[in-house]
Amino acid sequence: MQVTVESTGTLERRMRVELPVEHIEQEIDSRLKSVGRTAKIKGFRPGKIPPKVVRQRYGKQVREEVLGELMQKSYSDAVTQEKLNPAGGPKIETEDGEDSFAYVATFEVMPEIKLTGLDKIKVEKPVVDIGDKDLEAMIEKLRDQKAEWNAVERKSASGDRVTCDFSGTLDGEPIEGGQGTNVPVILGQGQMLPDFEKGLTGVAAGEEKVFKVKFPKDYHAEDLQGKKVEFATTVHGVEEKALPEVDDEFAKLFNVEEGGLERFKQDVTDNMRREAAQKVKNQLREQVMQGLLDNNPIEIPQTLKAQEMHQMQHEAMQQLGIQEHDQAPPLENFAEGADKRVRLGLLMRQLIADQEIVVDQARVRAHVEEICAGYENAEDMVNIYLSNPQIVQQVEPLVLEQMAIDWLLDNGGVKEKKVSFSEFMNS
Question: What is the CATH number of domain 148-242?
């Protein structure tokens, strides 16, 4: 086997492999003899078929099989011999000669990465303070979730829920999507355009009212931008919100059967801490990853980028519930995201290899415990998850990545910044 390699780009390689015809023909002859011993051809006894007949019947098929197997094996041997690390499958072009058989394999190789500037990665870590006002604000949100709506005979005001039918027209013609039946509108929440909520303020059940609504200049429907649309409405009901008292009975609405209000507040605080910790973790990850990218520009194999684009398109189809591929979002929409994913994947893999980071099973368990923290039977769920090999295989790469991120944080620069829970979560 003769091998020559040519660099046709930063990562692209053109490898020519030449195999002696004599070796190929010997293998074909050997394979045909084996076939002849077991083949069944009408008019001949098994094992007594003339070699010429066997070659006429099976020669083309056997030749293709032999060449395919030899190319596969020789390609593998050649990349090992030349110390190449292909990023994907090759494009093969064959060349036939009198004394030899040759093929050209064109493929991309993985980039050689030497990480730099890891100690220069600087991040800002939020230190989240959960104060009494933050807890009170969260409890108000939970009260709002359990609110009841009671019908009132008075005219509507901010905070009330108005249920109505409406129909919008522009120059006497109905507008697309401008009709609704028994639609509940909570005044003051901004779920409808300001003029629409203003038109429903001061109305009572049974009232019919016509008013105009001015659409914003940047409205998503171009034909309505900056236009005044007339809405005819029929009010079916006006309701005011009744919030539950914050007491032991309120705590039971959230499955707190023991410990009453104090236990409920503690549970809420714990949930807020978990929520904030997850957001801090995500922010640190984003900062570290960006620092890693900024300090280590690399060229990536386009083969890997294309694979990642297809994977992201498939994920988007699943999220959107799309089954027909011709309805999928355009592939080019995922080019930038796929490029970043592949770069980060290669850089993180190199970091893990350089620092010999291995999965810590204690951290795997801790990660699963975090996932199961919201369950009532959390410990049972942890054991179920850890006994499932598929779940463990999904968790381990996440833990390994977090260990690599922690290494970068430990060896970079971390500046802490104190911030309130509400400020941090609403940012």
Answer: 3.10.50.40
